[in-house]
Amino acid sequence: MPLLVEGRRVRLPQSAGDLVRAHPPLEERARLLRGQCVQQVGPQGLLYVQQRELAVTSPKDGSISILGSDDATTCHIVVLRHTGNGATCLTHCDGTDTKAEVPLIMNSIKSFSDHAQCGRLEVHLVGGFSDDRQLSQKLTHQLLKLNDREENENHFPIIYGIAVNIKTAEIYRASFQDRGPEEQLRAARTLAGGPMISIYDAETEQLRIGPYSWTPFPHVDFWLQQDDKQILENLSTSPLAEPPHFVEHIRSTLMFLKKHPSPANTLFPGNKALLYKKNEDGLWEKISSPGS
User: Fold this and answer.
1) What pLDDT is stored for residue 50 in this prediction?
2) pTM for this structure?
């Protein structure tokens, strides 16, 4: 299976390490990214992408200037960009169904690139480390140098999050305090087993959430009664490497799932999506659903 690296068609390597050894500039670019300081990204002009979500837009977007995601341990954040028209897709993959997700990612960027007269697709992968269960390595190979540091014989990812500037194509290390809108609702969909979905319509410049449905989370009361150690060890793919807010995030998401066992009835009246658009200050503002 061939792919484009540095503008040349090459055969897909057997491992990420083989790819890096065959193309030394890739390792240098990874080293430069790892060496950056983490930038705190504010909510203005930001579209935050949660796990198992994707968003795609272009430099023509008048509302969104930055796509970003973080909290990636064994997950991978993927940026796919067309060099001709600047159309950019960012997604947060966890290996649930990579075979189905890759065509979804490719088709999302293709819809922006059909009329581009020149240019190529560039892919950037960030995430994964040498975790004990080898989940990172498996996902890296499924999608296409590991992001690993060692401390006291334990392994941790170097980069947990990145942002991409749609206008300039700059990619940089980032963290985010605002992961909305509807952070808990979107996280609940993922924890309940929802598939990869596209969340943003670049034509209308609207973020679309739902309508979602899920079955009641199994044994939710049992999990809510467990201590932090049990939640961390049983509901994380990499307990030692999670960010400090992981357990709090899982607890709040479980509480949300308990409160809303049937979201169609309580969260999406009339089975209508929740729609958001950036206001003049660059912040998300809820707008009326179609037909409401």
Assistant:
1) 95
2) 0.84
